[in-house]
Amino acid sequence: GRDYRVLVIDKKVAAVALRMTPCVFGDGIHTIGELIEIENKSPLRGFDHEKPLTKIKVDNIVLNYLKNNNMSLNYIPKLHEKVILRFNANLSTGGVAKDCTDIIHPDNMEAAIKSAEAVGLDVAGVDICTRDISKSIYEDKGVVLEVNAAPGIRMHLYPSLGRGRNVASSIVDYIFKDKKDYSIPVVSITGTNGKTTTTRMVGHILSLSGKCVGMATTGGIYINGNLTQKGDTTGPGSAAAVLSNKDVEVAVLETARGGILRKGLGYDKADVGLITNISEDHLGIDGINTLEELINVKSLVLETVKDNGYAVINADESYANKLSEKVKSNIIYFSMQSDNLIIKKHMLDGGKAVFIKDGYICIGDCDNVKPLLAIKDIPSTLNSILNYNVQNAIAAVCISIALNVDEKIIVKGLKTFYQDEKQNPGRFNIYDFERFKVVVDYGHNIDAYNEVITSLKKLDAKRLVGVIGVPGDRMDDSIIKIGEICGKAFDYIYIKEDADKRGKREGEVVKLLENGVKLSGKSKENYDTILNEGEAFKKALTHAQDGDIISVFFEDYDLIMKTLEEFKKANKSNKQNCKAV
Q1: Residue 173: how many CB atoms within 10 A of its CB?
Q2: Which of residues 353, 386, 415 is at a domain's end?
Q3: Residue 422 located in a structural domain
Q4: φ, ψ for residue 541 (rounded to 5)?
Q5: Cα angle for residues 197, 468, 216 (degrees, 5° grid)
């Protein structure tokens, strides 16, 4: 009999192909080996499944088949002489196909469908051996040889003879048979500082509404509060991982500049887009050299919000009006000031705004202003010590009301979001060792250092000790400036360097930071240079004095936590008890 493949999709025959053994035709000049080489040069043939046909494979099976027919690769076939090369007709070894969909006998269709059904497959490739597929296998003494799961479809898409059948479309139509478009709310958050904390705040609030939240942040991917992938997951690949998870009901995506530039967004359009703030960070990287160019990159998050969605804009930033000109959706502005002119005009025009007034986060539109929550009741602000977390909380409120989250849930969410290693790891986490305190933070640009230092000064410290470092891909002037800022702010400094140099030579970042520290007037006896981050932090802990607050600006969070844990264990006998604040 002949070798037929019947493709069954959802109890229907979608396509039928006669699979024919690989062969060559003689020209009276070339050997069989040369004819195979000529055929394999066809643009239709490639390796494995990359093209409609696979290159003819020459192996022991071919050599033995030729030998049994008194031939070899050196044999020169006569003109038009057909030379079959092997017994089987698989496309993966060089076979070809002929479409027979229109001529299959109804009995054969039924046999194929029942065979697929018998083994529980809704998509199956059924192999039938019979002399003529147009005749009943019962009369022609044909048989069903096997039923294949995950069948190849090239023979149906690209038959060498007959009409191609778009079975790929049939399979997709079957999988998505209800023809409905499925969409979940997508929140995209970008900016220079505050992205991670705001993403975590919003994720926490939405989780209290009973939704399964998929969240991608600098610290990893979280599904329903569980860490599923560790690392910096702020690019389009991470967004796609969240959106492809069938359990996720709402996605909150931290969206970084680098991912946007290199691979774009990991989604089509968002329901809510937020820019927390933009400052001169990452300049000189990926062809972005000015603040205006950086704004143009990050504004993509607002430009790709759905027409009926919301763009959330920081009205306190000088570029706020410029961003609003790029937006096609609704806008919610936020501000730390109730008298901000942009939000006043926006509210008069009927728009929504969120702002601070008399120590409360307030929601306003038109003439209606409603207090939502007192700042003192938001634990992540540490009693307003962390002013930037007040701003992050306002932004989180904007996103929540844009998604129609109940105000009681928003309030509960902000009241139960803590500045600790569980809910907001690596963001101004305080550890109390009784004699001294440690603050762990990810600040790595000028604005972040300034904000953290401002907050540190509000704490009751006898000495401020800094363990400082900056990513190597920042501009030299920015690295020097951070060194100068730290030189003025800290009583003692440990200058360290990231393990990932990001283009700098070893010791180069440390040298730049040291130059900045010297510019501040700091003498050599008040700072030390230790390249390794773990060793620098360990030395700061070992030499801590009563009343110190040690602030470590980390690259490797896990390394810092490991060093902290080792120090706690080593000093238990010295009553160096530690508790997270």
Answers
A1: 13
A2: 415
A3: no
A4: -65, -45
A5: 25
Residues 227 and 126 in one domain: no
CA torsion sign, 243 to 248 to 252 to 253?
A: negative
* Tens digit of each residue's pLDDT (9 = 90 or more) over 419-430: 999 999 999 999
| Integer Cα distance of 177 and 123 in angstroms | 14
- CATH number for position 202: 3.40.1190.10
Structural domain boundaries, residue 50: 2-175
Cα–Cα nearest to 10, from 124, 145, 107: 124
The continuous run of DSSP H or E covering 18 comes out as strand 13-20
Give the residue among 68, 131, 128, 61 at the shortest CA–CA distance from 94.
61
* Helix ranges (DSSP H) in 89-189: 106-118, 137-140, 154-157, 167-175
Residue 94: HSE in the Cβ half-sphere, 13 Å Cα cutoff: 21
Q: What percent of the chain has pLDDT over 90?
A: 75
Beta strands in 140-209 (DSSP E): 143-148, 186-190
Residues 165 and 120 in one domain: yes
321 has pLDDT over 50:
yes
User: Is the confidence at residue 289, as pLDDT, over 80?
Assistant: no
β-strands 23-25, 330-335 pairing = unpaired
* pLDDT confidence bin for 256, thresholds 50/70/90: confident
Report yes or no: 552 and 564 within 8 Å, Cβ to Cβ: no
Taking the CA atoms of residue 454, residue 460, residue 466 and residue 468 in that order, the dihedral angle to the nearest 10 degrees is -40
Sheet holding 2-9, edge to edge: 96-99, 13-20, 2-9, 123-130, 143-148
Distance CA 504, CA 511 (A): 11
Same domain, 395 and 267: yes
The pTM of the full predicted model, rounded to 2 decimals, is: 0.72
Among all chains, which residue has been given the structure tokens 């939000």? 343
Residues forming a β-bridge with 273? 188, 311
| C-alpha dist (Å) from residue 133 to 8, 12, 88, 128, 198 | 15, 16, 18, 8, 64
Determine, yes or no, domain membership for 125.
yes
Q: What are phi and psi of 2, to 5 degrees?
A: -100, 160
Strands 527-529 and 368-374 turn out to be unpaired
Tell whether the torsion through CA atoms of 264, 266, 268 and 274 is positive or negative: negative
